[in-house]
Amino acid sequence: MLSEHFETIEILGTNFAIAILFVLIGLAIQDVLKKGDVPKFGRWFVWLVLFLGCAGFIAKGIIQVIWESGL
Question: Could you tell me the residue ranges of all domains in the chain?
């Protein structure tokens, strides 16, 4: 059974690892912003860029699923 679903397990593991990486990057950025006394506009800009990166990753996954399913 494992050999039959190896590719799916690998894809899920990679996606979860990247999601965890985004969370860790977010925590690191939050710590740097707090310690650096960054103005509110700068904080909004940093979080916007981080959100767009996450949104792009999610959009890529959705597009990939749709493309591979043939819809």
Answer: 3-69
Contact 54, 18 (CB under 8 A): no
The SS3 assignment for 60 reads helix
- The full length of the chain comes to 71
Lookup result for tokens 């679903």: 5
CA-only gyration radius of the chain, Å: 17
The C-alpha atoms of residue 57 and residue 19 are separated, in whole angstroms, by: 9
C-beta of residue 42 within 8 angstroms of C-beta of residue 21: no
Whole-prediction pTM value?
A: 0.64
Q: Give the separation between CA 51 and CA 57, rounded to whole angstroms.
A: 10
Give the tens place of pLDDT for each residue, 27-70. Answer: 999 999 999 988 999 999 989 988 898 888 889 888 988 998 87
